[in-house]
Design a protein that fits this description.
The chain is an alpha+beta fold. Among the domains are: 72-177, Beta-Lactamase, CATH 3.30.450.20; 303-449, Heat Shock Protein 90 (2-Layer Sandwich), CATH 3.30.565. It has ten helices and twelve strands. The strands form three sheets. The protein has a five-stranded antiparallel beta sheet. The protein has a five-stranded mixed beta sheet with strand order 7-9-10-12-11, covered by helices on one side. β11 and β12 (441-449) form a beta hairpin. 18% of the residues are buried. Bound molecules: adenosine-5'-diphosphate (ADP). Adenosine-5'-diphosphate (ADP) is lined by residues 359-360, 363, 385, 387-390, 398, 403-405, 408, 413-419, 442.
């Protein structure tokens, strides 16, 4: 095909043709006029050439601008497409074509929904319908198919423009691939979830550890308690076999002797043995009492029952009760100071004082002093003897269950009395102290609230 002639050449041909048609005779040409005309023509020609040049430059600039806009449209970092009311692609830039993985020629004239999964396509059509009413397509995310590659998530938004064709408004849509962004966000979310999970696992572990610790402590306490009970049981068996056997042996031999003396008619010899039997029974009862008290305390079965108590009267009864236990020639000398009335648990108080008096009687040969005093809301009871006393290095263990000092081997006892006294005093909010000089005697002092 012949090369196209430049525009100005074509125009010149046309002009020359026109001039040729003009009859030369019509021109009244003098030389002068011809010269002027010549000049005019030359000027026109220059002018025309200049205009021509300007036109060429303008055209060049237009072509450049067009190229720039094409470049801007096609290679924008964002996908751009123009859809009509039915969602058909009127135009699409190269970035959007690349996103869909399909060439522009195949995309133009096709509905965008063709590159979507059915649910998504309906979503787009609904939104588009709304956009053509309101003028804007608010941002929405769609799942699009990408030819030959994995699907992608597109974030689209757009505006509707009416433009020249009133009947065919168009929606200009910007489209961005946000797959990686969403994946990163999901990853971040998962990371945060894991982090939270990790914290809660840590918290759970800590709680579990605390429970295990608590449980271990409870178990070891239970084990310790059981160990103590077992120790107590074996101590009880030891004591029962030794201590309870002694009074029974004494009773048995005394009964045999009494029978013998009776058969011989020696009634004068009987009395001391009757006394032996009495004191053995007392011992036996005291030991049983101790065990019963301890067992009740262990079971937490001792209930405090406070009542009005006339102290001197209460002690008088107790003294009478103890007369059978006193050794020959031994007395309890009693003194009271202060108000006589207290509010206390009579039974528990009786047990406490009884235990202290028994010890004082048992570990001495001479009189025992008992003092009671009420002062400033406190009841003080003091039991004093002048007996064997307590060895200094045994004093610290005195209140331990089953403990007996090394100087009492020849005396009957269980080593339970003082520990029971201490437990009873706890129930009454009282305290106990003692002073003792070996070989000289001991003083035990208890203090209790007088009336609460
Ligand atoms: P026990 O049944 O052996 O008397 P207690 O618990 O009553 O048991 O007393 C513990 C130990 O304290 C006694 O074995 C004894 O060594 C010592 N003891 C208690 N009271 C006296 C006292 N008044 N004089 C000397 N020692 C005492």
């Amino acid at each position: 095909m012949a090369a196209k002639k430049p525009l100005h050449n074509t125009l010149r041909d046309k002009a020359e043709a026109k001039v040729k048609k003009l009859p030369l005779s019509a021109l009244d040409l003098t030389m002068e006029k011809a010269r002027v005309m010549m000049h005019e023509l030359e000027v026109h020609q220059v002018e025309l050439e200049m205009q021509n040049q300007e036109l060429r430059e303008a055209q060049h600039r237009l072509e450049e601008a067009r190229d720039q806009y094409t470049d801007l449209f096609d290679f924008a970092p964002i996908g751009y497409l123009i859809l009509d009311k039915k969602g058909v692609i009127n135009n699409i830039n190269l970035t959007a074509c690349n996103l869909l993985g399909i060439e522009r020629v195949h995309l133009k004239g096709k509905p965008l929904s063709a590159y979507m999964f059915s649910g998504e396509a309906n979503k787009l059509l609904l939104k588009l319908r709304k956009a053509f009413k309101t003028g804007t397509l608010p941002a929405l995310e769609l799942h699009l198919k990408r030819n030959g590659n994995k699907d992608f998530t597109a974030l689209i938004h757009g505006i509707v423009v009416v433009g020249g064709n009133q009947d065919n408004p168009l929606c200009r849509i910007a489209m961005q691939d946000v797959t990686e962004l969403r994946e990163a966000e999901a990853l971040q979310q998962r990371h945060e979830d894991l982090q939270r999970e990790k914290e809660s696992i840590q918290q759970y572990n800590e709680e579990l550890e605390a429970i295990v610790k608590k449980r271990t402590k409870e178990l070891s306490e239970a084990l310790e308690a059981e160990k103590q009970i077992n120790e107590m049981k074996s101590a009880f068996i030891t004591i029962a076999s030794h201590e309870l056997r002694t009074p029974i042996t004494i009773i048995k031999s005394s009964v045999i002797l009494i029978e013998k003396f009776k058969n011989l008619g020696r009634y004068d010899k009987i009395d001391p043995h009757v006394e032996h039997i009495k004191s053995s029974i007392n011992n036996f009862t005291a030991i049983l009492d101790d065990f019963l008290s301890l067992e009740k305390l262990e079971r937490d079965a001792v209930r405090v029952k406070k009542e009005n108590l006339e102290i001197p009267e209460f002690i008088k009864d107790l003294k009478t009760e103890m007369e059978g236990i006193l050794k020959p020639g031994q007395h309890i000398n009693y003194y009271h100071e202060g108000r006589t009335e207290v509010i206390q648990d009579k039974n528990i108080l009786r047990h406490i004082i009884f235990n202290l008096l028994i010890n004082a009687i048992k570990y001495s040969e001479t009189d025992v002093t008992l003092r009671t005093q009420t002062l400033n809301g406190t009841l003080t009871v003091m039991v004093k003897d002048e007996g064997i006393g307590i060895p200094l290095d045994d004093q610290k263990n005195l209140f331990k269950r089953f403990f007996r000092a090394k100087n009492v081997k020849d005396f009957q006892g269980t080593g339970l009395g003082l520990s029971i006294v201490e437990r009873y005093l706890d129930l009454l909010n009282g305290t106990i102290q003692f002073q003792s000089i070996p070989g000289k005697g001991s003083t035990f002092t208890i203090t209790l609230p007088q009336d609460s």
